[in-house]
Specification:
single chain; mainly beta; Lipocalin; four-stranded antiparallel β-sheet; globular
């Protein structure tokens, strides 16, 4: 710490130092599973599930849309029902997104054309409003395409790309914007690990991990055709990168064969490790620092029968770091692992969610778990197996029990993918300065 800053710190009243220390500690601990630790905290019952949904030609308006679903059982008129739906014009391969650090905005991306849609939530959490579209992501970033993970940083949004405009292969980068939607910088992945997918930060270690998938040429193809193309199947990532987060510099490359996808850091302060799963080899990997400060990647468990390629697609680590939920797309299963001993995960439960399943999200208190069905437009199953749903379950630590489900095909909404949670009370408790597309203030609740 610089001497001048240290002096300023020591000159503060004791209660102010304690309050500041508490605030710093709070920013380093995520309140909800699998989210950025920089997000403003929310607790208690969620009121809404926001679902980023792929449009289907000939179904409803055929456009990608943000669908809001009522999730509070005390509100009988909206519970388990569609509350609102906002279409964004056209089909863009709706995939992932994320809140800004203050949760005022919800950024959502399209993998096909790299458009980014920014919704305001503070004005009306039940009816998100599209306030801005970023249409120059590729140009501003220097050729990055396929915005995937949207990760909140203080006043910033860090976006991981999947591909590039030069050859639409797997070489890609991280792209940083400020919360006003202005481009800041591009950080290309290293030559020995050029593929990208997810990005997750552990502030306590000043480390960031990124994982790897495949480029536009592969993820926009029909899955059956892709799997039958031996040359194309060679173009998947088999590495993870450890970064000095503050410097935004890659410092180590880890070998993790089989396309490591979602990354989940342990949330408890005493734990310093993360998990990922590999899509092509169906394994759980543990990522942890060694005494010399470098990281080690270890294959710690199989997921189902790897020979059948169940295709792990999403994971969710409980807030107490005890349970890891793993979704496998091909068999439509969720498997729950006891990871109290992270070096020896043990499967304790499984359930078939549908003919296919993709995303899994636990609530802030871990008592409810939500699932959606769609992976990618050209990868989803066909015919009767092409189920498209949002399903909600309660979780008591031992089993899942159904709460409600919505058939997105019957509702003519499309293919549901990413989920995030919202709550009215949170926004009622906030005061925001006026910005474009939002209210001047949101009153503090009485």
């Amino acid at each position: 710490m610089e001497t001048s800053r240290l002096g300023s710190w020591l000159s503060l009243p004791r209660f102010a130092v304690a309050a500041l220390a508490l605030a710093v500690a709070t920013t380093a601990v995520a309140d909800e599973t699998c989210m950025s630790p920089y997000l403003t905290k929310i607790t208690d019952q969620e009121d809404y599930v926001y679902v980023w949904t792929l449009g289907v030609e000939g179904l409803g308006d055929g456009e990608d849309k943000l669908v809001t679903v009522g999730a509070n059982p005390d509100r009988k008129d909206t519970y388990g029902k569609i509350v609102s739906s906002v279409s964004v014009g056209g089909r863009h391969e709706a995939h992932h997104g994320g809140f800004t650090d203050d949760r005022r905005q919800f950024w959502l991306g399209g993998l096909a054309d790299s458009l980014i849609f920014i919704f305001d939530l503070a004005g009306s959490p039940s009816k998100p409003k599209l306030v801005k579209t970023i249409d120059d992501f590729e140009k501003a970033s220097g050729g990055v395409v396929g915005p995937h993970t949207f990760y909140a940083l203080p006043g910033r949004m860090l976006i991981s790309g999947l591909s590039n405009s030069k050859d639409k292969g797997g070489k890609t980068a991280l792209v940083e914007y400020n919360n006003d939607g202005k481009y800041i910088a591009t950080y290309w992945l290293p030559d020995d690990a050029p593929y990208g997918y997810d990005s997750r930060v552990e502030p306590r270690l000043n480390r960031m991990l990124t994982s790897s998938f495949t480029g536009w040429n592969n993820y926009m193809r029909d899955l059956g055709e892709l799997m039958g193309d031996a040359e194309a199947m060679k173009n998947f990532g088999h590495t993870m990168v450890v970064w000095d987060f503050h410097a935004r510099k890659p410092i180590q490359t880890l070998k993790v064969p089989g396309a490591p996808l979602e990354i989940r850091w342990a949330l408890q302060p005493r734990h310093q490790y993360a998990f990922t799963t590999t899509a092509l080899t169906s394994k759980i990997w543990l990522l942890e620092p060694k005494k010399d400060g470098t990281f080690e990647a270890t294959d710690v468990a199989d997921i189902g029968d790897p020979k059948k390629v169940p295709l792990p697609v999403d994971i969710s680590l409980s807030a107490d770091d005890k349970h890891l939920f793993v979704n496998t797309f091909m068999d439509g299963m969720v498997r729950v692992y006891d990871v109290s001993n992270p070096k020896k995960p043990k499967q304790i439960y499984d359930k078939k969610i549908g003919s296919q399943v993709n995303m899994v999200s636990q609530t802030w208190d871990g008592k409810r778990v939500y699932f959606t069905s769609s992976l990618l437009a050209n990868w989803d199953k066909k015919g009767n197996d092409n189920e498209q749903f949002l399903k909600a379950y309660s979780w008591n630590g031992k089993k899942l029990s159904s709460l409600f489900e919505i058939d997105f095909t019957a509702e003519k909404l499309g293919r549901p993918h990413l989920m995030r949670f919202g709550q009215d009370q949170f926004y009622e408790n906030q005061i925001f300065t006026g910005t474009e597309g939002g209210p001047e203030t949101v009153a503090v609740a009485r």
